[in-house]
Write a structure and sequence with these properties.
Layout (H helix, E strand, L loop, with lengths): L4 H6 L9 E2 L10 H13 L9 H21 L6 E4 L2 H12 L8 E5 L8 H10 L2 E5 L1 E2 L4 E2 L1 H9 L4 E5 L11 H10 L3 E5 L11 H4 L3 E5 L9 E5 L1 H6 L23 H21 L14 H28 L4 E4 L13 E6 L4 H10 L2 E2 L1 E3 L4 H6 L8 E5 L6 H15 L2
Parallel strand pairs: 1-13, 3-4, 3-7, 7-8, 8-9
Antiparallel strand pairs: 2-10, 5-6, 9-10, 11-12, 12-15, 14-15
Length: 418
Amino acid sequence: MALDLERVRHQFPALTGEAVYLDNPGGTQVAKQCLDRMLNYLIETNANHDGVFQTSRESDATARDSRRAAADFLGARPEEVVIGANMTTLTFHLTRSLAPWVNTGDSLAVTRLDHDANVTPWALLARDRGAEILWVDFHPEDGTLDLASLDRALEKKPKILAFGYASNALGTVNPVADITAKAHAAGAKVFIDAVHYAPHGAIDVAAIGCDFLACSAYKFFGPHLGLLYGKRELLEELSAYKVRPADNHIPFRFETGTPNFEAIAGLLGVMEYLEYVGDHFGEDPGPVTGGEADGKKLKLRRASAAIRAYEKTLTAALYETLRAVPGITIYGITDPARFADRVATFAFRLQNLEPRRIAEELDKDRVYAWSGNYYALEATTRLGVEDKGGMLRVGAVHYNTLEDIERLGRSLARIARI
């Protein structure tokens, strides 16, 4: 069943105004179920962990339910899901715990297509342990990973390969399962940054086979919160940097300090929103790894399948709208026959206009978009635009409409005449 956009948008209080939100790659709008959960938590069950009194018991119960829901979302087990501030902070925590695995003369591999949160933590780990960073390149002409460059890096037997599920700058979706299998065959552990992919499609860590994967809930309709998946046996092996009285069981020993309980409650609301989408508009997701056929995991997968199907329409419409603007240069995959390998995120330059100027002009029409490098510093440098103000980026998610894209097109046509 196709998404009913009126019913979907009704679940997002921010969408009642005139603004066109195409800034989604930097953070999506928040589902009503998330807001309701957060407000209820702060009014009814606001308490710290592990108390013997009612509000603490209820707070802990909500946190357990949220972790189980997050595990279903990732295709993991609850004890494999670490909750933290955001993907960047969790990645830095993980690299600290992984440091004893890395010795002088070892190597770690990263890609030039990634957000810097999946580059600098590994580069600093390499610096501190006397290891080498190996760079995997991408093809500037279409924004896809250079698999020959990947093979050359893996020939050097890196301890870890870190790469993205989808590029936050160019929208490219990487063949994550194939890359993971290659890396494991070379003896590398695999860390995947799934932040940009999470709002666009289903994540199944069991099917991918990765060792670690991270994402952030504020990129998929929720609060400012991060999730880190780690294989149970690896989390049990790693040492954690924590205070002495803290719970030493996984995954809690990697969660330092008092967590953001209201955001954790909000995360549960996000999963309830996605279950709503799966119940009302879901499509057949195909095999679901490790989940019951009638379980919540299936609802989440059905929601992701419906979202992915609708976003194909948005991707095509965005591309056709952008390519019609005089003087535009679009980066990434531009062959419609290959749009299955990208999400509805496009980066472009328009004539000689500074991308920031374009974003300011779009704002006058209440069309919101990002300019610059969006922390994909290696990508903008490789494309030769970092010293020119980067690129203008627009990104649609499933609550966007074709009219949103038409408004973008009208605004860009006006800006092109400046």
